[in-house]
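Researcher: Quick test of sequence recovery. Tokens follow.
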């Protein structure tokens, strides 16, 4: 099974940015943690991070041509604004799980909308970076293969 882990804007600043909300693990630590989990589960993971909406759309489209089996995405602030990213996920028709490190449901009003959510089969929020592992497990457990 082949997964794509996508992170949107400012997630490259993990460990530096607002550690009270997003923790002290760096983006690099996150990739290592996910990689170790995927190795244990015997699935492959590609990683992508961008601060640019169109680049995220391009990478989601690429997943179709790469025959990716599942996408784990934390769109960052684009969660709350991007119809283009929603449409990209709908276009490729690949099972997609939405992750938020913080519990967006308990934060500002402008974070209460998630455009991408309606195209996702799973959402996890407020579980820190463990949420990525939960999303990966969900995609594995709900795929017909390994
Ligand atoms: C986030 C929550 C978003 O509201 C915010 O813009 C982020 C990170 C999270 O992981 O909790 O960049 O997606």
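Model:
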């Amino acid at each position: 099974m082949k997964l794509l882990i996508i992170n949107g804007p400012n997630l490259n600043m993990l460990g530096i940015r607002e550690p009270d909300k997003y923790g002290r693990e760096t983006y690099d630590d996150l990739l290592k943690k996910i990689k170790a989990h995927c190795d244990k589960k015997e699935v492959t993971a590609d990683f992508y991070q961008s601060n640019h909406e169109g680049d995220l759309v391009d990478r989601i489209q690429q997943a179709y041509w790469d025959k990716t089996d599942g996408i784990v995405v934390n769109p960052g602030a684009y969660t709350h604004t991007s119809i283009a990213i929603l449409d990209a996920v709908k276009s490729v028709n690949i099972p997609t799980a939405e992750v938020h490190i913080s519990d967006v449901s308990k934060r500002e009003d402008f974070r209460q909308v998630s455009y991408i959510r309606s195209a996702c089969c799973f959402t996890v929020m407020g579980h820190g970076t463990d949420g990525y592992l939960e999303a990966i497990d969900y995609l594995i457990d709900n795929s017909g293969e390994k």
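The first helix runs from residue 19 to 22.
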